[in-house]
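[step 3/7] fold_predict: job queued, chain A
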Amino acid sequence: MLIIYVLYYTNTQTKHLNNKIQSLTLKRGIMADELTLTRFLLAVMLGTLFAIVYSMRKLIILERYIARIEGHIEKLSKHILREESVIRRKIR
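[step 4/7] structure written:
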């Protein structure tokens, strides 16, 4: 979502900034296409970074959820083992 916003912002602002960029190109010798490409690459890199951070967050949440399920299974198996030992004692 963020990368889409950044790309949208980049595309809409490019039209307004073209005149300013062209005046800067005369002063600094930088082409307008280079600035647009740089801005686009920066947006892609930031979007990728945020996607990695978001996926790591989801993985941590999923890991905690699975650990909680494993804890419940462990408690249930201990309870079953106790019940089995009680049944074995009664049978003997």
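[step 5/7] annotate
The mean pLDDT is 80.
The radius of gyration is 30 Å.
exit 0
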